[in-house]
Amino acid sequence: MSLEPQITIEEELKKAYLEYSLSVIVGRAIPDARDGLKPVHRRIMYAQHELGNSFSRGHKKSARIVGDVIGKYHPHGDSAVYDALVRMAQPFAMRDPLVDGQGNFGSIDGDAAAAMRYTESRMSRLAGEFLNDIEKETVEFRPNYDNTLLEPSVLPTKVPNLLLNGTSGIAVGMATNIPPHNLGELIGALLVLLENRDAAVSELMEHVKGPDFPTGGFCYAGKGLVDAYNTGRGTVKVRGKLEVEERKKGLQSIVVREIPYALNKSSLVEKIASLVNDRKIEGITDLRDESDRKGIRIVIDLKRGTIPEIVINSLYKFTPLETSFGINMLAVVNNKPQLLNLRTALLHFLDHRREVIIRRTRYDLRKAEARAHILEGLRIALDNIDEVVKIIRASKTAQDAKASLKDRFELSDVQAQAILDMRLQRLTNLEHEKLLEEYNELIKLIAYLTSILEDRNVLRGVIREELEYINEKYATPRRTAIEIDELDGIEIEDLIPDDDVVITLSRRGYIKRTTLEVYRAQRRGGKGVAGLHTSDGDFVQDFLTTSNHQHLLLFSNKGRMFQMKVHQVAEGSRTAKGVHIANLLPLENNEWITTVLCVRNFEEDRYFLFATKNGMVKRSSAELYKKSRRTGIIAVGLKESDELIMVREVDDNCQIVLTTASGIAIRFSCSDVRSMGRSATGVKGIALKGEDKVVACVTLRQDTDCEIMTVAENGYGKRTKIDLYRTQSRGGKGIINFKVTPKTGKVLGAIPVLMDDELILLTSDNKVIRMEVKEIRSVGRATQGVRLVNMDKGGHVVGFDRVVEQQQDDQE
């Protein structure tokens, strides 16, 4: 006698609990990503479809619908089914209700609906779009709970219901909470995805601005919404809509017109009354609920002299008029729970719609081909009607007639039977013409249906037409106003002072932001203070004096541009190393940042001028660089062996001075360089000799009295009046700018300066020198200047920049 295998109680409990949890997740609490419905809602809609309870017919008792649902498809309590049906009919719970109710279906005050024997229901007009073509084998059917009937596993909906009406549910170990959205905005995003499946979430958010709650109010979209749409989880702040009304004798009232989603209005009124009685909110004389069928109206009368804004802020602070909505976009995908972001949620609907159309097309094609096959047989019979009649009359039985017809005209069994079933009136000329017309129309239909299955563009066009139809027929204006939450991580500049800072970038790519005050002013020739800490073999490449609110544009040697705000660079002390630029930017191999530019505004009449090592220059509109991607954009096209060395912001009135390492300079008008596209290579700016290379690009304005400050590697420098640089044609050999000797070393660079400016220099010994420009003598072009900094043996200047007042910086 064999014994049954024994299992432990722990194993049995684990197995049973797992099966239970999966049943709750898939079969009760979490919606399907395709039609956005939980099983109970799907069964309610399918039961109404089976009853013929459509919008074009009269209402039926809710009890009749609930009875069909629990008797045929949903083996749960009638109260659970009725509660789900009631919510589907509530306009304050559903953005676009799926049930058209008649009777008492509850209120926003929390009042319960009347008993199901009193209320009547039918599908809403929109709900009809969920079940179109369900009889055309568009979705899979499965046995119901007792294996006596079949029910759809998903509805062939044309509506993106998962995001349209949202949902909430608590399963075992997980939950979902998806807010409702605007149908028109969802259709706009779907059309974008239809053309480009790889569209970024940011592109979709240009259409889907945020949740659209049926109760209106304000949704403060900030970092939480961006996180939710990118990751599937996030939190948004929701506020009710309050208005200030004037009463008689100069008195004022605050009127609540809209409240946050899922908030009980009666509880809100009680909460406000409790706060007034407890004196937590002062200045209120009366509180009354004047809401009616036209909408919500909670009136709060104020004492004379009370400032309404103070009371409004208190209401937002102490009552649920301001609440947080936690978004958790969990849905069932392939019978497994999956966290979706905005893009994947819409893609699952699109993929479902594509499959439905393909299955519907195959069904229609099969029916059309079968009908065309029969019509072909009838055409043969009509063309040979005398012989057909003769064969039929000569046959003893119908089977003999069918066999004779098949043999004589090479017909199929179906065609022969259709000829036998044909009525005599079809022999008239009019009926003959109708048959030919029907056949020709079927041939066209078959060709069209075949093109849908074989051509993706045709299929895409069908989906587009359906989406545009749904948008045109059912989309409604947005109810919830979207506001930017400036305290939620998106607009945070108001919290950051626009202080002057120094951006430091080392050759190896270490970047930091330091306040300008940490560098104390020193006399010319001083030894300096400890500057940027670098490792052996690294040195400072760029110093930029700017402010926190400006745009930081970083250009690489390969001609790419990256963009961020100055305050996004990590702040460090004077001696800190900073963070590596690779932590902020996706740089490629053998790519590094060669120049940094700060811009406050991208104005239409301003341009960026690009200068390369080989003397090429290019001018492009600043508007082309306003929008950037995290992966960067192409800023300038480069020829082989060339590198981008510098970018300057210019306009048509600017003069350009290119300086080279061997002390040559050329001055020409910015208008000599025509405006080009972002990826253009540019034109020749200066003709270089031998191994010479361009080291700086100075931009000048005709109405400025600035001078050019030139600095050499060994610490020598000078300032020279602009008038000494004559204007030439672009592409010339240039004139002498600096007398280069072994004592001075090669030219490091040049910048425009004013008398009130200060100069910051960095040495290879990591020392910082700050001096006034007026202390440096103004001399001619062909001179070597004066010593600016005393160098230790083997040291040299590696970077310099000017320091200007913020007001001056803005003017320039």
Architecture overview:
This protein has 812 residues and is α+β, with helices and mostly antiparallel strands. It has 4 domains: 37-156, Topoisomerase II, domain 5; 241-320, Gyrase A, domain 2 (2-Layer Sandwich), CATH 3.30.1360.40; 352-474, Topoisomerase, domain 3; 493-811, Neuraminidase (6 Propeller). Helices cover 29% and strands 26% of the residues. The chain contains 17 helices and 41 strands. It has a 4-stranded mixed β-sheet. The protein is extended. It starts with 8 loop residues before the first helix and ends with a helix. The relative contact order is 0.07. Residues 486-492, 520-538 and 805-812 have low confidence and may be disordered.
Topology:
Layout (H helix, E strand, L loop, with lengths): L8 H21 L9 H13 L8 E2 H12 L4 H12 L9 E4 L17 E4 L17 E3 L6 E3 L8 H4 L2 E4 L4 E4 L4 H13 L5 H4 L13 E4 L1 H9 L1 E7 L1 E6 L5 E7 L6 H13 L6 E6 L8 E5 L5 H11 L3 E7 L1 E4 L2 E4 L2 H42 L1 H10 L3 H12 L3 H9 L7 H26 L1 H19 L6 E4 L15 E7 L3 E6 L13 E2 L9 E8 L3 E6 L3 E6 L13 E2 L12 E7 L7 E6 L3 E6 L11 E2 L9 E7 L3 E7 L3 E6 L13 E2 L9 E8 L5 E6 L3 E6 L13 E2 L10 E7 L4 E6 L3 E6 L13 E2 L9 E7 L2 H6 L1
Parallel strand pairs: 8-17
Antiparallel strand pairs: 1-3, 2-3, 4-5, 6-7, 8-9, 9-14, 10-11, 11-13, 12-13, 15-16, 18-19, 18-21, 19-24, 20-39, 22-23, 22-25, 23-28, 26-27, 26-29, 27-32, 30-31, 30-33, 31-36, 34-35, 34-37, 35-40, 38-39, 38-41
Helix pairs in contact: 2-3, 3-4, 6-11, 6-16, 11-14, 11-15, 11-16, 12-13, 13-14, 15-16
